[in-house]
Amino acid sequence: MTCENIVLQLKGDIERGSVQRKFSDKSYICDILKVLHDSAIAFCQKQEFLVLLEEQTSLSHGIDIEEVLRSLKECLEGNKDVLFSCQLLSTMTSLMIQFEILTTDICTSIIKILTKAVTSAVDSSESCYYKSCCCQCLSQIEEWKPGTLWADREYILKSFRQEKSYIHQDYATLVTKIVINGVCGFHQTDENGFLRQQSVEPQEFRQMVSIIMENPELYTPSGLWHVVTSVKEIVQNNHNISPTIFKPLMLHHMSTMDPVILHLIIFIMVEFENEILTEKEESQIIGSLIRGLDHPSLVPAQRLFFAHWLKQILMDSEKDYGIKKYQLNFYPRVFDPLDCQLSKLMLLNSCIPRLSELPSDMNGALLLASVGYLHKLVWHTGNHRAVVVLFRALFGMYQRHCSRSFSQDINRFIKGLISGFPHFIPHALDFLECLRETTSDSSMYLEILNLLHSQVTSTTSEDLAKDYQYFLQVMRKVSLQKEISPHATIKFLNHLVQNAASIDGSSWILGNGILAVCHNLLVCHGTKQLYTDIGDILFNMMMSYDDMDIQDRALFYYSLLTSATSNKIQEFLKKTSGTQNFNQTISTLLPEGKSDDKSCSKILQANPPVLEWHRNAVTTNFDKEQKEFEDIESYYDWLSSADISIKASYKIQLSKYEKEKVQAISVNVESDNNFEAVKGIQLAEIKSKDSLDVTVHMKPKFPIPTVFRAWIEFTDNMLTYRNDLEEINISLLDMMVPLPEGDQLSLFNKLWPYFTNPESNTSRQCVQSIKIVHKTLEQFSERMNQFCSSYKLKDKENNQSCYGMLLASGHHLLLLCQGKEEQTNVSIATDSYHMLPFVDTFLTEL
């Protein structure tokens, strides 16, 4: 196979991802080596195959790696392309290390090639790029097999001192690696291994380290980091080398604003504390950091680095740098970014002695004044990020200064913030939780919580409606504290329940917040003193709250309150608020013998029925102010905002000779696609001699008569029963009301052509039909007037009459009746074709 075909095959294998599988075949590697020796193949393609060889050769079985290295060495000797030569060296080095054959003859010869290139004269024909690659390969070999290059150290060091180009850094990395291994005592003694011995004079090490540190200006910042940290290890492991070797570097870069270099200087200063710089020089470095912290043109991230390093030097170090003298330098400035202000405040906080040990007037005033700019920013913008920074600063200050006077200052601070910005309450509560976790013995948690509680209970109705969600968060915390009286909380909840509709339309969020506070009150304070107060709140929510889920939960809490002891309720609610199984928890409230989990969710059928209801009346209400309409579309717009609903009134009572009373009653009506969902009705109890009037509110979507199933669920002896009731039958007549007040005949005359002309409307389901009733007009009118007298309009002509009805679904039914001999022709026009079958049935049964 020719080399061109091999190249095509290799490319195809790379594209298909089958290279890894084929490398197990020895001949596959031979094909690659054949391509590498072919001068007709482009060097860029050869480099790609070299990378492939480097990555996949370890997967081959039975390959003679020394033969592969010899073949690659032959390619190197006859090659003049620098990039290809560098890739060859990299591949050979990688293979030698992978197969751990550095002591073989072929590897020794390759190392000599690398060493020869590195130790060649500066003005030799070897390119800088090639030398750089050789240095990096030798560094890897020296790291893998320490002491390999120790014998050539003098020649490498000589070339290193002469090299002043950009590859000086690569030489430094190699020399540093050799010196580190030398300090650790690794020296090559024979061909088979490396032994530890200490035969090198300390003077030689000092000379080599001095040479490494001679030209730091030739290093990049990252390269300088690598070299200096390596030299630091050498100095720390050899006490004959003084740390002052770093002093020229540190003095040269003392005023730099380059974060990488400055970090390196600080790192060395901290590592060799009191060994390199004088006190004055250390103060100069600290001054550079302080200037950088205040420098407005530096990015915030760099300024935060400076703050972190200052903290490391001034506070975390064992040496006393006289931190107090720097405190005024950490006073925040008005244009400092938020994070920088926080860092400065933390530094300033650490500079001030603990207030518990000294009078707190001056120091406490200085601390509170330092957050002045931050406080103004919060006060004038209401920014959430700014207030988080402010609370973090206050928390750090109080954590260090737990004095009584300072806590009072913070109380006043928070009171002013919350009074102006109730939406900061969640941040204030987070602040309190942090205080409780870190300073559990402090009374500040209760003081601030009591303060927030007083502010919430004195809130005006307007503010309460706007920010009730935040106020309820405070109440949830307060209700868990036995030290705070619950009576003000109960009064606050009563106000919310009574005004729920006006505050937030009786939303689920409001109801859930109220019930959460009630839950905490029952857990913390029990029912001994709060039985009546909480019972009233739960009963009102159970009876009048608009959200069904909230009604159900209020009913559940009310049932607990009236059926279990205080201790049982507390035990149950504590478990349900955690991770306990709900069924296992609620079973503790049931009587003995009824604690099976299955009984908790089972609803029993009451047989015979315990409760019954009787229909009183069904009315359709339509309340809307009278108005003149220019066209039909404006009339429909007006009608869409009208409230038209059906009210079915029933009387509920106990069946004869059954029970004295029934408690926790829930009246339910099934759902139907033609009607909006009917809300359930909750009743506290019914006694045997009493009867209760209930009204079911229904809103139809379409004018279709419907029969609803209805049932009652109630509790008795800690079990839940279901009692079926008489069905609710809503007929077409039940849905009808007269046309809006005003000129009804004029409205009839406008609607009729609108319904009967197909081109007059496209969006409504209008239809026209005719029904022949085998009665004279007089007989028909007499019968119609028994049911629809209120819908009859003025006669248009003799022997003709018309009726106009508005239905609860917002649709219309228009009838134009004309007598003809012994029959009446009834023309029907409507904007809902769904009702035609029911209208036909109604007219037939007249």
Question: Helices and strands in order, then pairings?
Answer:
Blueprint: H1 3-16, H2 19-22, H3 26-37, H4 43-56, H5 65-77, H6 82-99, H7 105-118, H8 128-144, H9 153-162, H10 168-183, E1 186-188, E2 194-196, H11 202-212, H12 221-237, H13 247-252, H14 259-271, H15 279-294, H16 300-314, H17 338-351, H18 360-370, H19 372-381, H20 384-400, H21 404-420, H22 425-438, H23 444-457, H24 461-478, H25 487-498, H26 500-504, H27 508-525, H28 531-544, H29 548-563, H30 566-576, H31 582-586, H32 597-601, E3 603-605, E4 611-623, H33 632-640, E5 643-654, E6 661-669, E7 681-687, E8 691-698, E9 706-708, E10 710-716, E11 719-724, E12 728-730, E13 736-738, H34 744-756, E14 767-773, H35 777-788, E15 800-807, E16 812-820, E17 823-830, H36 836-844
Parallel strand pairs: 3-11
Antiparallel strand pairs: 1-2, 4-5, 5-8, 6-7, 6-10, 9-12, 10-11, 13-15, 14-17, 15-16, 16-17
Helix pairs in contact: 1-3, 3-4, 3-5, 4-6, 5-6, 6-8, 7-8, 8-10, 9-10, 10-11, 10-12, 12-14, 14-16, 15-16, 16-17, 17-20, 19-20, 20-22, 21-23, 22-23, 23-24, 24-27, 25-28, 27-29, 27-30, 28-29
Can you describe this structure?
A hairpin with a 2-residue loop joins strand 16 (812-820) and strand 17 (823-830). Among the domains are: 242-322, no CATH class; 483-576; 604-730, Immunoglobulins (Immunoglobulin-like, Sandwich); 736-844, TATA-Binding Protein (2-Layer Sandwich), CATH 3.30.310. With 846 residues, it is α+β, with helices and mostly antiparallel strands. It is elongated, with a radius of gyration of 46 Å.
